[in-house]
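In response to reviewer comment 3 from the previous cycle, which asked for concrete evidence that the modeling workflow produces usable outputs, we include below a single protein chain processed end to end. The sequence was submitted unchanged, and the resulting structure tokens are shown without manual editing.
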Amino acid sequence: MSTAVSPAAVRTLADPDTPFAVVDAHRARRNIARLRARADRLGVGLRPHVKTAKSLDAAALLHDGTPGPVTVSTLAEAEAFADAGYRDLTYAVGIEPRKLPRVTALTRRGVTLRVLLDSTEQAEFVAAAARESGLALPALIEIDCDGHRGGLKPDAPGLTGIGRVLHDAGCLDGVLTHAGESYSAFTAEERRAAARNERDAAVTAARRLRAAGLPVRTVSVGSTPTAHAADDLTGVTELRAGNYVFFDLVMAGLGVCAPADIALSVVVTVIGHRPEYGWIVTDGGWMALSRDRGTAAQPQDQGYGLVTDLSGTLIPGLVMTAASQEHGTLTARDGAALPELPIGTRLRVLPNHACATAAQHHGYHVVDSGRGTSASPAIEAYWPRVSGW
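The workflow returned the following structure tokens.
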């Protein structure tokens, strides 16, 4: 859990060795409250995805400090959150048989851990494990609403057959879908259309199962873009999203948030200048930011990240345009003058993809811009990430 910073040993972002990850708790709380209010207005439950932060401390903000329903992307996450008292989990990656003993072990501990599948073969594995263990292992059938990465089309002939296999073993819980193509929805209307399509796919699949006499308790939808665009979730029981806690430049490029909402950044230090090339060199490369170039396909390519000063204020026109393993290259956009940043200057870089950037770090130094701004914000806590995959 978090390590608080004692008043006698207050440190600031000027102190730890760079590069390191920073979370602005004020921005994270604001982002969380925004989506929670939307889910309340839409009359659906909220099941946040914890794969981005992978942090018990960040998750504590989601349900006012009380363990609530969450989504995980690995069994290691499921086990870590179960150890911390979370009892209502959805494992939103397709199940395979060698993982079922870990699922069964968590179920024996009193954890509700839903698994995800999209084939008769997987359903039979789950049903067999349930019968062998004497436990109900709740399963969600994945529905493909757009991205085709996984799932069945809502009208797939095999849908009810899979549902029957699960129901006969006491395992059918419901359906789940994820609008992956919403990450290419650049207008508000495109995002609303993606949210409607996501809802309709899940509700149609649930209706078909019920028409076949099969109970459907959970109808789960969500992605960060559609969660913030949905205006009618009739027939849906829960909304999932994860990136929204931190946000990132991809989400800002879509118009889902603004750069001022991004709660995650990486502190780097200027270590050199190449004026003949128009470069400022830092000690933060792709090992600190990741290789993700998610904004490259957007109208405004943000390189590897936008640059702020240590207080979090954007430096106009300064972009991290290149990265090697431990070096980042900053350049000025559109012919702007390169700012004078002496060696030793500390900066913060806003990431393209919060999930990928967070994965490069063991934890987060926490600041709180809600307490006011300063040239070097105080570090209020350290939030470790859960270990393992």
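The chain has a mean pLDDT of 96. We consider this sufficient to address the reviewer's concern, and the full set will be provided in the supplementary archive.
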